[in-house]
What does this fold into?
Amino acid sequence: MPILRTVFHGVVQLARKGFRGIFIVGEKMVFQNIAEIIQLGLEARGIIYEMLNADNLPAIIRLNEQVISLEKQSDVVAFKVSGEITSGAISSNILDNLLECVDMADNILDNFHYIGREIRRTGRLRFEAVELGNFLAFQGQLNELLDLSQQAMEALKRLLSSKSIEEMQSIRMEIEGVEENGDNIKDASFDRLYLMAPSMHYLQFMHISELVHKLDDILDSCEDIADLILAISTSISK
It folds into this structure.
């Protein structure tokens, strides 16, 4: 859910204006680095989609190694930009918010890393035909959540390169709509999961539950980052 809804009270006057060069070099660089992490998230999302729909373990293992590599790259970028933020090149009144943005962006990769390892572990199991059918019943909803994560991250990248408060506010509302769609899919998935639980192996129940939770966490992170970026931009432009 949104974490900074009150920011919109201060945006009304600024919504008709551009940034007029309000960002200094350090702040622009931080936004670019956050966008770089989000791009890594988009790449990880594509690989996770392949893993989720793969039908053999060797392919799953190979793809999972790619996700692990992307997560490590994200850690490197996050460590570098966090050091730059705390080095004194950033205004102290936005420093904490920028650090939180970097941390949440890196957490997106952490969640994809977790999902990849979860798919890899489950790929080693051999379920009965009825239990395999149970999992396939959720595959469409998991794919939908992955599609929404792509929409949210692509919108977040546009927000990070936006040149006006008005445009940022519009993109932030777009991300909120995507996150709300994700909540609806998550709720429907859990309703269905609990109804089917008596016929499921407990490992399958836990596997599907974890995937849905982590994909929902990614959407929440995108919305939270958007809220913070808008708050930071509004603060700078005052």
Helices lie at 25-53, 57-89, 92-123, 129-160, 165-196, 202-236. The chain has one domain: 22-236. Confidence is low (pLDDT under 50) at residues 1-23.
